[in-house]
Amino acid sequence: ERERSQQPGSDIKAVFSVARCRGLVSGLQHSVDVTQKIEALTWCGLVHEFLVSGWPYDRNGTSVYKDGVSAAGEGALYPGETGTGPPGLDTNSSGKDWTATRRLPQALIIGVKKGGTRALLEFLRLHPDIRALGSEPHFFDRHYARGLDWYRSMMPKALDGQIVMEKTPRYFVTVETPARVHAMSQDVKLIVVVRDPVTRAISDYTQIISKTPDIPPFESLAFKNRTTGQIDSLWSPLWIGLYAQHLERWLAWFPRTQIHLVSGERLISDPAGELGKVQDFLGLQRIVTDKHFYFNKTKGFPCLKKPEGSSKPHCLGKTKGRTHASIDPEVMQRLRDFYKPHNQRFYQMAGQDFGWQ
Ligand SMILES: Nc1ncnc2c1ncn2[C@@H]1O[C@H](COP(=O)(O)OS(=O)(=O)O)[C@@H](OP(=O)(O)O)[C@H]1O
Asked: Active site: which residues (predicted)?
């Protein structure tokens, strides 16, 4: 529901069932986890009620409306998807505007495809100062002719001080994109999740073959000539991994300090550590921390801890963390050799070594 409600042009507002909300919200009544509280109120459509009357349900699931003072303290939570707060609450005591509006993004996750961009976006969405579009709008690469007003209309409503963001991994490798992004904003913050280009290529191929099972084997697409060992660097799964080349195009338009590189490997091994650095880069308080994650052994990836009162923990869907197609080890080695100089150049530009073999 949450995903669907964020599709471009969708008017669907995700609202959980009343029964589910009673369980979820009442369970959180005395929780000190403000982020979870905001999420629960937002997705249960109870933000308005909270602002008017305080915490909606007690632990027995009955109403605890009481004189506009909440368990968390008045004004502690943000209005969510519904946007405008109730009359009389358009500003808080500090004069802050409580009216949510649609704004152009101040931060973009521009790549890379199969780097871990969905995980990063979903984790960042836990932050109350981030409003992120759930789907990929592909504005700067595919829909640029629709204009900035269209793009703005795709964005979720956000309050003053909240950062609006979206992710479209293809931006990183599309030639026209840096100039277009720059024309929208010179100050936009750019995030790229990078992952070992060999693993990334196999992940990419695994997705392609799941959709078109008849395509030739990876080994024959990766080479122009298998006998001479000449790599086909223009084959998209390999070409996307030439990170230095793509980053160079962005650096012609944006200073290095405006681009934050996330290690796709560390996003799996230490999600809280990587999220900490991203929150710093965005100028946000470190609210998403290790207490939000647990390692799900079955999935083999970090997942979000289950919210109190909810039956399910939140792992990413089946298309994230797939079993990869198995590739001839000799071909893997050939690809590692191919990427070595490109990776070295990328490390120099990045100012950090990502440790790919
Ligand atoms: N927490 C968590 N759960 C599941 N998957 C995770 C996670 N963190 C990173 N990853 C890695 O993300 C890879 C998919 O990357 P993207 O989300 O960028 O893919 S896409 O470009 O949007 O299609 C995906 O690639 P595959 O493993 O090849 O499926 C994962 O390795």
From this structure: 114 (for sulfotransferase activity)
**Residues with Cβ within 8 Å of residue 323, at least 6 apart in sequence:** 206
Predicted ipTM of the assembly: 0.99
Asked whether residue 337 is domain-assigned, the answer is yes
Residues 107, 102: Cα–Cα separation, whole Å? 14
**Pairwise CA distance, residues 309 & 305, whole Å:** 12
What single letter denotes the amino acid at residue 258?
Q
Rounded to the nearest angstrom, the distance between the alpha carbon of 315 and the centre of ligand 1 is 11
Between the CA of 70 and the centroid of ligand 1 the distance, in Å, is: 39
- For residue 325, the 8-state DSSP code is P
Domain, as residue range, for 125: 107-350
CA 313 to chain centre: 18
Ordered DSSP codes for 40-71: HHHHTT-HHHHHHHS--B-TTS-B---TT--T
Number of domains in the chain: 2
For the entire predicted model, the pTM comes to: 0.76
117, 118, 122, 296: residue to mutate for ligand 1 pocket, most atoms within 8 A of CB: 118
